[in-house]
C-alpha cells in the first residue's frame, strides 16, 4: 500500500512538472488567437487579426529579419569553427584535446550578463557596439561548443578508414572530406547547424546589451514591449517563434532521434 | 597527388600545420572575442573612477573594488544574489533529477513526451517564458482565476512582483538545462544494473540511492554548475517578475554600466562574480567529476 502511494505521488509530481514546463507556452499560443486587444485566457473569440497587425508594424518586422540574419550568421560562423575544430582535435588525445574543449566551453560558464557587458565595453572601443558582427560573434561563443560537441559525436561514430581509403586512392583531403566524410555525417552536421540556429534565435541577455535600434532581435523587441505592459503582439511573435523552434527540433529529432538530441547537446 | 592550385595547397602542408590551421578559427574566436575581452574587463576593473565619463584611460586604481568592498547596498545585493542562486540551483537540480529519472524509466511514448517538453522549453527564449509566467501567475492570471473560480481561494494570491515570481521565472529558465544534463548521464546507465539490484531485494528507493544516484553524479555536477552560473547572473527574471527588493548583482552591474557610467565599479563587480562562479566550478570539478565529464557535456 505504501509503495503504491509513493508511485502515485511520484507520478503526480512529474505530471505537475510537465504542466509547469509546458502549459504556460500553450497559454501564450492561445492568447495570440484572441480577437480582443487584451491578453486574455481562455480566448473569448478566435481570430488571427493580430497576425495581420504584426505585418503593419515595421519595428517588429525589422526584428524578425534581424533575428533570421543573426541566426544565419551564427550558424555559418559556429559551423565553420566547430567543424574545423572537431577535425583538428581528432588526432589529439589527452591534454591537447582537453585544452581545446575547455577553451570552447569556457564561455558557457560565464553568466550571459557578464559576457554581454564585457563585449559591450570591448567592442565599443572599436565602434562595433550595436553591430550585427558583435551580436553574431557573441552568439557564436555559445553556439560553437554545441556545434563542436555534436559534430565531434558524429565523427566518433564514423569509420575513418573509409576516408583514408579515399586518400590512398588519390583524393585530396578536401575532396575526401566532401565526398566521403560529409555524406556520412550529414545528419550530425545538419543537427549541429539547427542547434546553432536555435541557440541564436532564442538568445536574449547578450543581445539586450549588444543590440541597438537597428539590430534588435525578436526577444529583445519582445522584452522592450513587455517592459511597457502586455502587448498582444508579443503573444503573436512568441507563437511564431515557438512554432519555428518546434519545427526545427522536430526536424533535428527526425534526423538523429530525440534521445541523441537530448543527450548530445 | 594534389592538383597544386593555390586553394588546394593546404594538403601539401605538414600534418602539424594542418592541425593548427584547423584549430585557428576556434582559437581566433575564443581568444579574440572572449579571453582578450575578459582581460580588458580585468583591466577596466583597476582603472580610476571619474564623474567625467566612464573611466580614466590608462590609470591604475583599486577604487572599483574598494567601492564594492565598502558599500552596504552592494553587500546586500550580493548576499541576496548568492542565496537566490543557491536556492534556485537546489530546486532546479532536485527537479532535474526527478524529471530525468521519470523520463528514463518511462516507456517509449512517455519518454518522448517528457523529453520533448524539456527540449522545447530549453530552446524557447527566456523572454517568452517570463511572459508566460506573467500570464499564468499574475493576480488576474490563469492560475488565480482558476483557483478563485472553483472557490479554493477567496482572493488572488500574489505570485509575481515578489520573490516567488523571481524564483519561478528563474526556475523556468534553468530547469530544462538541469533536466537534460542529468538525463544525458542517466541514459548511459545499464538498465540491467538496476534490475539486478531489484532482484537482490532492493526496493525502488534503495535501487535509486545505491545504483542510480552514484551513476548520475557527473550529471548532477553539470546541472549544478549550469544552474548556478545562470542564477548567479540572473537579470531578466528578477527584473520582470520581482519587486524592487529582488535586486541582483546582474541588475546592479548593468545599472552601474549604463546609467551611472561607473565602469570600474561595474567591472570589479563582474570580475568578482566570474571569480565566484569559477571557484564553484573548480570545487565541483574536483569533488564530483573525476572523469572530466563536465568538459564533455
From TrEMBL, chain A:
Family membership: Belongs to the binding-protein-dependent transport system permease family.
Position of the signal peptide: none
TM ranges: 12-33, 64-87, 99-126, 132-155, 176-201, 233-258
Protein name: Spermidine/putrescine transport system permease protein
Any one of the GO BP annotations: transmembrane transport
A Pfam match: BPD_transp_1
Keywords: Cell inner membrane, Cell membrane, Membrane, Transmembrane, Transmembrane helix, Transport
From TrEMBL, chain B:
Subcellular location, record wording: Cell membrane
Residue ranges constituting the ABC transmembrane type-1 domain according to the UniProt record: 78-282
Gene Ontology BP terms: transmembrane transport
Entry keywords, A to Z: Cell membrane, Membrane, Transmembrane, Transmembrane helix, Transport
UniProt xrefs under SUPFAM superfamilies: MetI-like
Gene3D superfamilies reported for this sequence: MetI-like
GO cellular component terms attached to this protein's record: plasma membrane
Membrane topology of this protein: Multi-pass membrane protein
Protein name as it appears in the record: Spermidine/putrescine transport system permease protein
Taxonomic source organism: Halorientalis regularis
